[in-house]
Structures are given as C-alpha cells and as structure tokens.
Amino acid sequence: MDSQTNKRTILIIVSAVDAVLSGIVLLIYFGFLPVDISSWGIPRWVIGPVGGIWFASAIAVLAYQLTRTDVSE
Description:
Blueprint (H helix, E strand, L loop, with lengths): L2 H27 L14 H24 L6
Helix pairs in contact: 1-2
C-alpha cells in the first residue's frame, strides 16, 4: 500500500475514535450519562468547552479526510 493511503486511513480511524470519546465526554457534561464529574477534581465549567473543542476538531479532521480527493497521477 501507498504510504499516503496508510496515513489517510490512520487519520480517519484516529479522528473517528476521538469523535466518539469526546462525544462521551459531552454526554457526561450534559448529564445524559450518570457519571459524577465533580469527583474528578476538574471544575465542571472546564469539561464542557474542552469536550466541545475536542469534538469539533475531531469532526473537522474526519470530514476533511473523508471528503479529500485522491490526486495520484
């Protein structure tokens, strides 16, 4: 396989896993999953923005990698 194809596949897998993990963090923050985040020692107001930025960046990388055209001539 081509090294560019391997790199692209790895980026797709990693960004998809990042999106899932950050989605779980956001579900915990919004209270949909019953996890007590106050016991983590991190202020609640930090969890939301960090999870949101993490989720947005993971989705952006995933969307870019999935829509990028393969130019190999």
